[in-house]
Amino acid sequence: xxxxxGFVLVDDIPPEVxxxxxxxxxxxxxxxSALFDEPLPLVADMAHVTSLKSLNLADExxxxxxxxxxxxxxxxxxxxxxxxxxxxxxxxxxxxxSSLLLQHKSFLSSLSPIAVDVDRLAxxxxxxxxxxxxxxxxxSFEPDSxxxxxxxxxxxxxxxxxxxxxxxxxxxxTLPADARDIIRSRYDGGCVYSVDFVSLEPRVIKSITSPxxxxxxxxxxxxxxxxxxxxxxxxxxxxxxxxxxxxxxxxLREMAGSANVSRVSSVIGDYFGLEDLGRRLQECHDEFGxxxxxxxxxxxxxxxxNRTWLSHYAQSTSVDLALDAFFxxxxxxxxxxxxxVAIIHDAILFDVPPGADALFKSVTDxxxxxxxxxxxxxxxxxxxxxxx
Length: 388
Hints:
The protein is of the alpha+beta class. Helix content is 46%, strand content 12%.
């Protein structure tokens, strides 16, 4: 049977190639299908699936279609599947996003398992009785005999923006902050740290729309630009996020209280270049039928509201920037045996041995290099393990 150039039928699949139909593969064309919102044609014939299932003869995932379908029908279906797969492979190469996507996949799959404090986990499980969602989250951290939870399997395919979700393993994204003490260092005298970007999404937008770097406290800076003493910093922060996320004028007025909402939204819009960015996203959507983030990742949704595009653009660009920066940081710390064990959106957790503690602190005390320039981060000690 012939196949489009770039795809062949083999028994042993090399790990560095795009594959179709293998859920355990590192590079799956199905992921590109989700990324571009382009469904792949089915080899399965749904009429046959229905008939076989009604007779309890086969499951859809294991039907030997080369026996069930005629030779010509099977050959035609596989050829169409491979042609679509090859087009998706070509699209990701043309997008300019391919190298970053592959880097993300490799980095996310390289994270080390989390070491678990069994006694603390047991105590939290007892305290969580009667709270099913909390219990489910905690139980996902139950360790093996060596004291390690399963490695977290992330996916970027479950959201329009590529924001991470946990596909399998510990539900780190929903672990309550007061239960993070179940995470321990694998090293005697080691420490688990969280490194978080500071006000990431507003800083990303400012960096894209202006050559001027944002100050460390971007919210106080904008508060001073607004110049209204009745508007506290916390409210300014909410208003900035709301403007980026496309809140209605009525919602902004409600949040601004006695402040002049027209002036507030005007200052925020001008500072972050929201009107110009909105125009650029509209032009992109008009030309391609969808928008892309700063790095070229397609953002496909069914909405035509540019306020939604702006929020998706900010979140998607921030996801890619954070993952790229965390990869670089991990590479920088690799020789010190400081191991990345989890990512929680804008933060990464490292398990740091005692001998690398000073180096880790010196590196994370600095601005973190990103593709949009140096960004500030904060560092928090999650748990420290005493020498035994």
